Amino acid sequence: MRVLDNFLDAMGNTPLVRLSRVARGVRPQVLAKLEMLNPGGSVKDRIGIRMIEAAERDGLLGPGGTIVEPTSGNTGHGLAIAAAIKGYRCIFVMPDKMSQEKVALLRAYGAEVVITPTAVEPESPESYYRVADRLTEEIPGAFQPNQYCNQENPRTHYETTGPEIWEQTEGQIDVFVCGVGTGGTITGAARYLKERKPDVVVVGADPEGSLFSGDTARPYLVEGIGEDFWPETLDPSLVDRWVRVSDRDSFAVARAVTRQEGILVGGSGGTAVFAALQVAGEMDDPEAVVVVILPDTGRNYLSKLYSDSWLLQYGMLDRPETVTVRQVLASKPSGLPAVIAVGAREKVRAAVDRLQEHGISQAPVVREDSSEVSAIVGSIRERGLLDRVFRDPDSLQADVAEVMGPPIPLVEEEDPVEVAFSSLQTAPAVLVVADGRVLGVLTRSDLLEFLAHRPGA
User: Fold this and answer.
1) What is the domain extent for residue 18?
2) I need a labelling partner for 28 at 20 to 30 A (CA). Which of 13, 145, 273, 344 fits?
3) CATH of the domain at 113
4) Is 421 helix (H, G, I), strand (E, B) or coil?
């Protein structure tokens, strides 16, 4: 039987897939390495178990021990899986910009999560690095793998990720593109690749606000890559070129990869693909091979970069053109009067005849012949009239004022169409007003007709 001894044995040997749609405009082949297919859903699974096993060999972690790690989430997932299998307690310290999905996932493994502020200096006692250090010192038997200085991090990628890429491309790789956080992936894989083919171009994809590419360190929204200090696990001499990418471009490209290639990726994957496409766009050789690391799955970011409202909140998505009530009103066919009203002192029979004459099912009731909003005193609706007349035929001779219902809801002509839609959830029609005067009536069917035939529908 072909059976794995444990979940971590499923790690590695992630496939390369050709990005045939988002890379349609460039000449080289752009191949993505799908690291989200590791057991915990990210490239960081590779280093979690290796850092733990190295600590066990060195006597730094023993039975009943506690693993404490500052992490943006993905390394924590890898460590949490390994700790669950080996029986260790885990405490992860995360900055507050990380998605709730990542926090919930760590807790699902039984880990404890401590949240710290993002916008503080690395040396601040509140930073997630320093909080992790303090917990490691205070908890008996605690061990901090510290992916930022643990050389098992780049060594893992030298021994696994680099060789996999070399074998999968049969040594034909020309450009290697990778987002940089701890620097372990790019350092280890690049070192292996350059030993076998020195002219491989290594490109570091870096978010705006990270100092790796020479920017001034400041907060940004992409998670898991970029830093405000130089980790010991990063060898910058192996990076031939840096491409700086904005949050907006990172998220836009990530969504494009998901929607065009069917690969659900995180924001850092969008950063890396943006950089890969930029470099590939400068190359003329159709035989050239560009390999880009997609470090994790977008399932950790459904409440963020895959949420239109979240992107709009941070200015990362253009607001759609606002459709106003006036535009919907203007789209109605001509032929009927703009407003068909019924006088409060008219008889119900005459009101019914007017509804039937114009083929409408409701009308405002006014105290006098006027289009002023102040003249409206109520409304009549076909359903209400039918119920009243069926039960009391003599009500046909009554004044409309005796059988009318509440006024039809009002919306301003410059209101977004969403306002009318909201009112039409509970009322069959709305009156469109401007400057205290009624301009027209919109019904549910009017709005449906507009939406069905507007450009692009």
Assistant:
1) 7-39+155-313
2) 13
3) 3.40.50.1100
4) helix
Chain center to CA of 123:
31
| Amino acid letter for position 13 | N
Better pLDDT: 192 or 394: 192
Query: Are 278 and 404 in the same domain?
Result: no
- Residue 250: inside a domain: yes
pLDDT score of 456? 54
β-strands 89-95, 66-70 pairing: parallel
Outline where 143-243 has alpha helix (H).
152-159, 161-168, 184-196
Degrees to nearest 5, angle at CA 308 with 418 and 427: 20
Q: Which long-range contacts (CB under 8 A, 24 or more apart) does 298-302 make?
A: 298/254, 298/258, 298/264, 298/265, 298/266, 298/269, 299/41, 299/101, 299/264, 300/41, 300/73, 300/74, 300/99, 300/101, 300/102, 300/105, 300/266, 301/99, 301/101, 301/223, 301/266, 301/267, 302/101
Whether the Cβ atoms of residue 80 and residue 106 lie closer than 8 Å to each other: yes
Phi/psi of residue 310, nearest 5 degrees = -65, -45
* pLDDT at residue 320 greater than cutoff 80: no
Q: Please, what is the angle between helix 152-159 and helix 161-168, to 10°?
A: 20
Last-in-domain residue among 257, 278, 313: 313
The answer to whether the pTM exceeds 0.85 is: no
pLDDT tens column, 406-435? 999 999 999 888 888 888 888 889 999 998
8 A C-beta contact, residue 175 and residue 280: yes
What does the pLDDT look like over 142-163, one tens digit per residue? 999 999 999 999 999 999 999 9
Residue of 33, 44, 102, 304 marked catalytic: 44
Q: Do 108 and 217 reside in the same domain of the chain?
A: no
Question: Quick one: 118 and 101 in the same domain?
Answer: yes
- As a whole number, the mean pLDDT across the chain is 92
Asked if residue 172 and residue 116 are part of one domain, the reply reads: no
Q: Determine how β-strand 201-207 pairs with β-strand 241-245.
A: parallel
- Count of the separate structural domains present in the chain: 3
Q: Are 180 and 206 in contact (CB under 8 A)?
A: yes
Separation CA 121–CA 218 (nearest Å): 10
Note if 44 is an active site residue. Answer: yes
